Amino acid sequence: MNGPARRGAAAGLVLAVLLSGCVIDTTTPESDLNADSADALEQSPDAGTPEARLSAVLALIYADSPYAGQLSYKSAFVDLNDDGQTDAVAYVQGPNGCAEGCDLFVFQGRDKRFSALNRLPLARPPLTRADSDSGWADLVTQAAAPSGQSSSAQRLVFGGTAYQPAERTATSVQSQVLIEDMDSAQPVPTPNTAD
User: Where is region (Disordered) located (predicted)?
Assistant: First the structure.
């Protein structure tokens, strides 16, 4: 299989996985979470820096998007579960910014690769890491609201296999801002430029 065909097949697999249950709607807490589907995602390439690996996997995820070439992202690298591995979070915005919400991705670091845990649509910066008793840090994002209404804070908790909206938004003693805003966002490369 040649390079473009291999990238197309990988992009198809990524999109199939994203649509098969690992997509979480932050407005529907009872959404079906399917961690096995997230684990089926072709993991990021293991070469290069964490930023290069994240960039490559985002390029594959959005390879067939009608907005390919118009997307940008901002990321942060942090150990979310205190296992000594670097995990990654990223907001991806379209040509209209995050006005209607961005995609928030959470990736678990495993050796020199990232595995997708979640894609949470309709999120907006800032993204904050908050302490938790579950072993995984909680994440706090802004949930996009209908036009004319202000967005509200949405606390995301790790539910054993993926992040999901908490039933309550609790306050935290310690927090760390991971992504403040989308200033200086980087373009999501097309797969042929992510090699």
Answer: 167-195
Measured CA to CA, the distance from residue 130 to residue 180 in angstroms comes to 14
The upper half-sphere exposure of residue 98, i.e. CA atoms within 13 Å in the direction of its Cβ, equals 26
Residue with tokens 């980087």: 186
Q: Is 37 helix (H, G, I), strand (E, B) or coil?
A: helix
> Whole-model pTM?
0.73
Tens digit of each residue's pLDDT (9 = 90 or more) over 8-65: 444 443 333 333 323 333 332 223 333 333 333 445 555 588 999 899 889 989 999 9
CB–CB of 106/139 below 8 Å?
yes
Residue 3 binned pLDDT confidence (cut-offs 50, 70, 90): very low
> Tokens representing 48?
């290069």
Measured in degrees and rounded to the nearest 5, phi and psi for residue 52 equal -65, -40
Count CB atoms within 10 A of the CB of residue 161.
Answer: 16
In this structure, what DSSP letter does residue 162 have? S
Answer for the pair 189, 52: CB distance below 8 angstroms, yes or no. Answer: no
For residues 147 and 161, give the distance between their C-alpha atoms in angstroms, rounded to a whole number. 33
Helix (H, G, I), strand (E, B) or coil at 14: helix
DSSP character at residue 62: T
